[in-house]
C-alpha cells in the first residue's frame, strides 16, 4: 500500500510538476529534481567512477527520453490499459459473474468502450495537428493577428517563415504548428489546431471507461456489504467493546474481503482525479480561447512585469534615500537590524529582476510590454464563450469561415 502511494505521488509530481500551478512550488522543485538535477548528479558521479565514456551513454538516453519523439510513454500507457483491463476481467468480472453480480452486459459495455478508446487513440496518434506552410500562412496571419502582448512579429529560424500568432515551432515534429497547445507523450503527437478535439475526446474516453469500471466495482462492494448483513450485527473487538459499524468499518471490511478489487478501485479513483483535472483545465482554457502554451506565456509575462515593477520601486526607494550624512549614520545605528533586512530585501529584488531579465523570454520585448498592467493582461483571441467553443469544434483550416477562405 505504501509503495503504491509513493508510486502514485511520483506520477502526480511528473504530471503536474511542470504546470503553471505547481512549477514554482515544492511540487515543481521535486519535478525538476526528478527529471533533471538527479540525473545530472548521477551522471557526474558515474563519470567520476567509470570515466568520460558515461557521457555519451547519458547523451543518448537524454535524446530518447527528452528530446525526440518516441513511443516510450505511449507504450507505458497501453500497458496500463492492458494491465487494468485484465485485472478487472480476472479479479472482478470472472469471479462475480458466477455469483450473478456481473452480467454479460457489463462485459459488452467495457468491450465497446475499449474499442471506442482504441479508435480515439489511433486518431490521436495519426491525425495531424496542422502545419504552417507557404500556402496557408497568409490565412493564419489574418486569422490570428499578433497581439503585441504575448505574440510579436518574428520569423521561425527553422522553417524560414513568419510565425503567425498562436503558432509555435514544435521540435518533436520539426514543424510550425498552428494554435500550438502542447506535446502529448501519451499520444506521441503534438496537440494543435486540427487535433485538439481528438485530445479532449481522448481524455473523455479514458474518464468514461475508468468511471464505468469503478461503478462495476461499487456493485461488487455493495453485494459484499449486503451479504455480510454488517449493519444488522453487533461486532466486538478483542477486549469485548462494541465496534461502531460505520464508513471506516466498511472500508476495512472490504479491504479484507476483496483486497484485489479494493486496491484497483483506489488506483482507478486516483486516475479519475488526474483525468478530471486535465479535462477541466482544458475545457476552462477552451472556453477562454486560450491554449496551454498561451496560459504559460501569460504567466511568464505577468511574472516578468511584476518583477520589473518591484525592481523599479526598489530602485526609486534607493534613489530617494538620504545621502551619507552624520544623521544617516545615527539613523543606521538606531535601526540597524531593520535596515539590514530592508537592504537584503532590496538586493534580492534587484538580483531576481536581473535574473528574470536574462531568462524570461519577454525580456527581449521589454520596450513593447513595459507599459502593460500585469494584473490586467488581455487575451485578445477571446471572442466570447460561444464563438470560442465553435472555433474549437470547427477549426477554421478544416471548416473555412469568412476569415479563412480558399484553403
Ligand atoms: Zn517552424
From TrEMBL:
Enzyme Commission numbers on file: 2.3.1.225
Residues passing through the membrane, by range: 72-90, 110-128, 198-221, 265-286
Enzymatic reactions: L-cysteinyl-[protein] + hexadecanoyl-CoA = S-hexadecanoyl-L-cysteinyl-[protein] + CoA
Keywords: Acyltransferase, Membrane, Transferase, Transmembrane, Transmembrane helix
Chain ranges of the Palmitoyltransferase DHHC domain: 154-297
Subcellular compartments: Membrane
Pfam families: DHHC
Bilayer topology: Multi-pass membrane protein
Main location per the UniProt record: membrane
Domain remarks in the Swiss-Prot or TrEMBL record: The DHHC domain is required for palmitoyltransferase activity.
Similarity comment: family membership: Belongs to the DHHC palmitoyltransferase family.
Protein name, UniProt field: Palmitoyltransferase
Annotated source species: Anaeramoeba flamelloides
Taxonomic lineage: Eukaryota, Metamonada, Anaeramoebidae, Anaeramoeba
Amino acid at each position: 500500500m505504501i509503495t503504491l502511494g509513493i508510486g502514485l505521488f511520483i506520477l502526480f509530481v511528473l504530471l503536474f510538476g511542470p504546470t503553471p500551478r505547481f512549477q514554482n512550488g515544492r511540487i515543481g522543485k521535486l519535478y525538476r529534481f526528478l527529471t533533471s538535477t538527479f540525473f545530472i548528479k548521477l551522471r557526474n558521479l558515474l563519470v567520476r567512477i567509470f570515466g568520460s565514456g558515461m557521457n555519451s551513454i547519458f547523451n543518448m538516453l537524454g535524446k530518447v527520453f527528452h528530446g525526440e519523439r518516441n513511443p516510450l510513454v505511449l507504450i507505458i500507457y497501453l500497458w496500463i490499459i492492458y494491465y487494468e483491463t485484465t485485472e478487472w476481467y480476472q479479479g472482478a468480472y470472472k469471479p462475480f459473474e458466477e455469483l450473478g453480480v456481473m452480467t454479460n452486459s457489463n462485459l459488452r459495455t467495457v468491450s465497446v468502450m475499449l474499442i471506442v478508446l482504441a479508435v480515439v487513440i489511433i486518431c490521436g496518434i495519426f491525425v495531424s495537428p496542422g502545419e504552417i506552410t507557404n500556402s496557408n500562412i497568409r490565412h493564419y496571419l489574418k486569422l490570428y493577428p499578433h497581439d503585441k502582448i504575448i505574440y510579436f512579429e518574428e520569423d521561425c529560424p527553422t522553417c524560414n517563415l513568419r510565425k503567425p500568432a498562436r503558432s509555435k515551432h514544435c521540435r518533436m515534429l520539426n514543424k510550425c504548428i498552428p494554435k500550438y497547445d502542447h506535446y502529448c507523450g501519451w499520444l506521441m503527437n503534438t496537440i494543435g489546431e486540427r487535433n485538439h478535439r481528438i485530445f479532449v475526446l481522448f481524455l473523455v474516453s479514458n474518464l468514461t471507461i475508468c468511471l464505468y469500471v469503478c461503478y462495476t466495482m461499487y456493485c461488487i462492494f455493495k453485494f459484499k456489504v449486503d451479504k455480510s448483513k454488517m449493519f444488522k450485527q453487533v461486532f466486538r473487538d478483542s477486549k469485548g467493546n462494541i465496534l461502531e459499524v460505520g464508513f471506516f468499518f466498511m472500508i476495512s471490511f472490504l479491504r479484507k474481503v476483496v483486497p484485489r478489487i479494493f486496491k484497483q478501485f483506489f488506483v482507478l479513483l486516483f486516475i479519475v482525479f488526474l483525468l478530471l483535472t486535465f479535462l477541466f483545465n482544458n475545457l476552462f482554457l477552451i472556453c477562454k480561447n486560450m491554449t496551454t502554451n498561451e496560459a504559460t506565456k501569460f504567466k511568464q509575462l505577468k511574472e516578468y512585469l511584476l518583477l520589473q515593477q518591484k525592481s523599479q520601486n526598489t530602485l526609486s526607494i534607493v534613489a530617494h534615500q538620504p545621502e551619507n550624512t552624520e544623521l544617516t549614520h545615527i539613523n543606521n545605528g538606531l535601526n540597524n537590524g531593520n535596515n539590514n533586512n530592508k537592504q537584503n530585501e532590496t538586493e534580492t529584488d534587484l538580483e531576481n529582476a536581473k535574473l528574470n531579465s536574462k531568462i524570461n523570454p519577454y525580456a527581449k520585448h521589454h520596450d513593447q510590454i513595459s507599459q502593460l498592467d500585469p494584473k490586467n493582461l488581455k487575451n485578445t483571441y477571446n471572442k466570447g464563450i460561444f464563438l470560442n467553443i465553435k472555433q474549437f469544434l470547427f477549426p477554421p483550416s478544416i471548416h473555412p469561415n469568412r476569415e479563412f477562405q480558399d484553403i
